[in-house]
Amino acid sequence: MSQAAGITRRVLRPLLGALMLGGAANLALAAPALSVLGQDFVFPQPQPGLPARLSDFPGLQIQQFQTDDGVTLRYWEAGSGKPLVFVPGWSASGAEYINVLYLLSKQYHVYVLDPRNQGLSQQVDYGGRISRFAADLKAFTRHLQLQQADYCGWSMGAAVLWSYIDLFGTQGIRKAVFVDQPPSIYTHADWSEQQRLDAGGMTTSPERMVAAFTRGDAANQQVVDMKVVERALATDSPHYVNSSAFARAVAAPVAQYTAQVLFDHATNDWRDVLRHKITVPTAIFSGEYSSNLPSQRWMASVIPDATLYTYSRAEQGDHFLMFKNPFRFTRDLHAFLAR
């Protein structure tokens, strides 16, 4: 294995997960997370104001429902009050949100949906498309009987929200939040450099990107921007160390399925949706460590009533900012949702 492949695999394992607590096949129906997962979890670097172990968060539950095409999806739930729905990024799950869930559950009824083929949700060999993920999110809102809620999409989860808005509009969305997702991952050959920056293009070959992210194949920066991998390796935030360790312990995605949706994700261009279809107050989060920051500035310039939150390097301003700096993120998010 090449050094680059080894690094990428070490990055993807924290992002994708490695072991199962208790085993997915033995998961119970809706119940406290501790009962569903089958055992407690001790966070490696306990932090003040956050759980030191899973049992310190007794209000956390894991529930499930079935989509109209027969797929069982699981979701994480905590708190009470106004509903706040999180849509995870590629290969991620509600486990990554453990600290965010804990902090926000004091003020909101918080949900994190595990997309099909990710986290604790069912793995199937169909529906690996952003549009299907958006349809699943619509089914989720019907299952919860949500008339109105706030929605936050991180990374690919933002693209799922854009697809949702494209297909179903903004009815039922009170406020929208997008965290560090470029409008177009694929860089078109005829774009100027400014167009690439505005769109956030990060690969000239979706196939090479999929190979790099799912198999650890080597890729140079001109073919695939690997900055997100570099920042995933930076474990200087104990909050991120804890949530990543929990995610590793909870769920292990299968590359066969995550590769399908990643290719579809990489080849979509959402700039028309951002220009014309987002009609609710919007917050955008990014940071100085992220290659996506120029595209997030462009998004803030074209979405009416948009607010851009830019985190500095000292504030862990990268693609994983909500997990590396959960106290700042949840304060900023609450301030935006409450105003």
Per-chain topology:
Layout: H1 3-16, E1 31-32, H2 33-37, E2 61-66, E3 72-78, E4 82-87, H3 98-104, E5 108-113, H4 130-144, E6 149-154, H5 156-168, E7 173-179, H6 193-199, H7 206-215, H8 227-233, H9 238-250, H10 255-266, H11 271-276, E8 282-287, H12 293-302, E9 306-311, H13 321-324, H14 326-338
Parallel strand pairs: 4-5, 4-6, 6-7, 7-8, 8-9
Antiparallel strand pairs: 1-2, 2-3, 3-5
Helix pairs in contact: 1-7, 1-8, 1-9, 3-14, 4-5, 6-12, 7-10
How does this model look, in words?
The structure is a single chain. This protein is an alpha/beta fold and 339 residues long. The protein has 14 helices and nine strands. The protein has helices spanning 3-16, 33-37, 98-104, 130-144, 156-168, 193-199, 206-215, 227-233, 238-250, 255-266, 271-276, 293-302, 321-324, 326-338; strands at 31-32, 61-66, 72-78, 82-87, 108-113, 149-154, 173-179, 282-287, 306-311. The chain has a nine-stranded mixed beta sheet, with helices on both faces. Strand 4, helix 3 and strand 5 form a beta-alpha-beta unit. Helix 1 (3-16) crosses helix 7, helix 4 (130-144) crosses helix 5 (156-168) and helix 7 packs antiparallel against helix 10 (255-266).
